[in-house]
Amino acid sequence: MLLNQFLILSAVLFCIGVYGVLARRNAVLVLMSIEMLLNAVNINLVAFSTRWGVSGQVFALFIIAVAAAEVGVGLAIVLLIYRNRTSIDLDELDEMKG
Amino acid sequence: MLDYVWIIPALPALSFVLILLFGKRLPKGGSEVGIALVGAAFVLSVIVGVQWIDRVESADSAEHAGAESAELEEQPVSTEETEGELIESETAAGSSGAFADVEPECSQAATAVDVDEAAQASHGTATAPSAEGGEGGHEAAPETQPVVRCVTWFETSGGDVTAGTMVDGLSVMMIFVVSFISLLVHIYSTDYVSGDRRYTHFFAFLSLFTASMLLLVLSSNTLQMMVGWELVGLCSFVLIGHWWEDKPNSDAALKAFITNRVGDIGLLVGVSIMFFAAGGTFSILDINIAAETGVMSHGWALAASVALMFAVMSKSGQFFLHTWLPDAMAGPTPVSALIHAATMVVAGVFLIARLYSVFWEGFQIFGSDINFMAFIGGFTTIIGALLAFAQKDIKKVLAYSTISQLGYMVMALGVGAWTAAVFHLFTHAFFKACLFLGAGSMSNAAHHSFDMVDDYGGLKKYMPITFWTYLISTLALAGLPPLAGFWSKDEILAGTGSLTEANGNYHLMLIFGGLTALLTAAYMFRTIWYSFYGQYRGHGTPQESGPRITAPLVILATFAVLAGFVNAPWWEFFKDWVEPVGAYFPGEIVHAEFNIGLAALSTALGLTGIALAFLYFWRGLGPHGLTAENRFARGGYLFLERKYYLDWLYEDVIVAAVKGPIARATYWINQRVIDRVVDEAGRTSVRAGKLVYEYVDQKVVDTVVNGSGVAAEESGEELRRIQTGRVQQYAALLFAAAAILGAIFVFVIG
Predict the structure, then answer these.
(1) Domain with A82 in it: what CATH number?
(2) Which residues of B lie closer than 8 Å to A, measured between beta carbons?
(3) How buried is B282 (Cβ within 10 angstroms: 0-12 exposed, 13-18 middle, 19+ buried)?
């Protein structure tokens, strides 16, 4: 069935995203992976909306808007970190260590 | 309009706020706002008056057709409060009771009386609730009943307290008088206080005063009435002390405020007693019905009446709390006319008239010869009239005259002549305001002096309009027919029941009233002699005042001539329109018939007073210089000039005693007794505190506190290691946790 294929696509994207978030050391790539996670969720929502009405699509629109805001803030932070330290390696950013 | 009368006090209140905020920036300093909004309030008052009269008239015609036909009168669904808050009101559709136009939440009477009447109707022979069986007397067409509208003011566990308006003949008459005189005084003031450094402030408080007085007379419950009562007291204080830079003015303001405070305690006590004695209600309607049906026992009604009489004595300047009123003349003249003659000082009279059933039961007015209220009123009227002879300041003469006339009203209420008292309030407002404004006009001409003996004289030819209006008002005050004062004064004298059939046999009150009629005519002609005849004794050449001063004088003088006819014995409009009908007003009240002999007697007394004054001053007859020759006469004059030594009694005896010996004795007791107790208590608690510190605080509490601190520190040291500062490690933990949670949902719960 068509729905399964969408769900599988979504799951694959999600796994790639999780891998990116956990394993990459470049902050920009981590942000991109987060976007991928969100879009995996979007695909899920839109796929299910074929069966349970349009509210899933509405959610997806919201998520796109919020994701745009999130990536804007995230990139700004990354830019500032780069200016201060000339590096965006996440492993070096452990000032909050207890 | 009868449902929305709350707009009437709201307009001047709005004017107060607007003038305070923007008055200084307006071209005329805020007076135009005051005049416009008070004028609007006056127009609305007239509309309300016309509608009320309509209601009464249609009720009269409906009475013949049968009162029951008015059962299905439609009820408004909601009312709106001043704050704009909307509250649903239950519609009492089809209620056939005596109070069809009272919202149920405003008054228990709206429902309670219904039940009684329904029971009576179904059982036919059921006993009437009132002891006299006078229920039949209370029966009337619903239209003449008061219109009561209210909203919840605040909620308590003992029931909600409401705020609202009560429209009946009395309040309609009062709002007309208050807004009318206030409007004229506003216009007059634009000339009189022009150029004053607190011009804007003056108009703001005139508006606030008007608003509070309208609030007071429209209140539907005693608590709201107290608010209005205190507000007018405040405005009086502010306006008496308008020129506070001079010490005597601010002293006079303080004296007025503090004397009123003495009486306000009486009001507080009276309102509390009525609240409990009437079964926990502040509603004026319910309180009156409770007094009328005997729910409020005679003892409680008496206690409440005596307490309220103190409030009346202070606010309406009755003996022995009247001393503030002459001093209040320190304020600007328009204020004296508005507040200290026409409106505020009648608040006390209004209070009695409003809660008349309580006083009626409390003082047993029906069928007795004398009571506290009648005596206080009668005594005040005569001592006020006597004091007016010993004054040089024209405004003080008028102030004592006001005291005397207020005494007349209180006396009339005391003898049961309700309509006569309220009618006298109505007519007195016009001619007394006219007299005060006339005095102000003269002082304008005579360089702001009020000393008629030294600075006036011969003003007749300089100020013809002031002279004629003053003369007409004087004749009205003296009670000569057919001017306004004649009809109302005569009704009061008839109401004493001494010569005619009325509520009792108050012979003493008739003597007081008759003597005062003579004295009033004499002292008023004394002011006319000093002001308008003889040689001008002031500086410069006096001139007639401008149109903004003379126009109000002419209007008021016209009313002084005509106002009396509304209750002339062959018409009696005033009685029909103003006197309440229904269970909240004494049912057995008797109206004295017009008595031509009594009218002739009172007119003769007034003419005698004028003749005596004429002979003494104009012809120079009689014992001039008696005070210089005769010791007794001098003593008597001094006694009057010192105002019966009441001020001396209050200041040098009571206040000095409190300041001197009583204060010292209190200090001694304080040092020796109270301080010792306090010291002992202090020492004991110090010892107890030490014990607690050693055993409880140090041993128990500190251990627990320290222990928790140590535990937190150590656990924190362990948990610190988890916080690596590496974001991806946190993310890994997050995803792991989410995965575990998801697994639980899928495999365990689902």
Answers:
(1) 1.10.287.3510
(2) 719-728, 731-732, 735
(3) buried
Alpha helices (H) along chain A: 2-23, 27-52, 55-85
Q: What is the pLDDT of residue B83?
A: 38
Closest to B726 (Cβ–Cβ): which among A21, A23, A94?
A: A94
Q: Of A26, A77, A78, A91, which to mutate for an interface test with B (greatest number of B Cβ within 10 Å)?
A: A91
Is residue B98 helix, strand or coil? coil
Domain extent for A60:
3-88
Residue A57 inside a domain? The answer is yes
Neighbours of B570 (CB within 10 A): 6
The string over B7-16, giving b where at least 16 C-beta atoms fall within 10 Å of a residue's C-beta and e elsewhere, is bbbbbbbbbb
Could you read off the pLDDT of B185-216 as tens digits, one per residue?
988 888 888 777 788 888 888 889 999 999 99
Cβ atoms of B304 and B277 closer than 8 Å: yes
> 3-state DSSP: chain B helix, strand, coil percent, rounded to 5?
70, 5, 25
Q: Which of B156-181 are b and which e, b meaning 16 or more Cβ less than 10 Å from the residue's Cβ?
A: eeeeebbbbbbbbbbbbbbbbbbbbb
Kindly report the average pLDDT of chain A as a whole number.
90
DSSP B637-683: HHHHHTGGGHHHIIIIIIIHHIIIIIHHHHHHHIIIIIHHHHHHHHH
Domain total for chain A?
1
Which chain B residues have a beta carbon less than 8 Å from that of A97? 723-726
Calculate the alpha carbon distances from B463 to B467, B526, B545, B692 in Å: 6, 18, 8, 86
Among chain A residues, the shortest Cα distance to B735 is held by A18
Instruction: State the smallest CA–CA distance between residue A14 and chain B in angstroms.
Output: 12
pLDDT tens string B209-236: 999 999 999 888 888 899 889 898 888 8
Which residues from B are below 8 Å from A95, CB to CB? 725
Find the chain A residues whose C-beta atoms sit closer than 8 A to any C-beta of B: 18, 21-23, 30, 90-91, 93-98
**Residue A73 belongs to some domain of the structure:** yes
Considering only A14-28, A79-93, B342-356, B565-579, which range has the smallest mean pLDDT?
A: B565-579
pLDDT digits over B725-744, tens only? 888 888 899 999 999 999 99
Percent of chain B whose pLDDT exceeds 90: 6
Question: Cis link prior to B482 (omega < 30° from 0)?
Answer: yes
State what percent of residues in chain B have pLDDT above 70: 84
A17 located within any domain = yes
Within a domain: A16: yes
Integer-rounded Cα radius of gyration of chain A: 16
Do B731 and A91 lie within an 8 Å CB cutoff?
Answer: no
Please identify which residue in the block is written with the tokens 């009101």: B89
Structure tokens at B705: 């506190």
* A91 to chain B, closest Cα gap in Å: 6
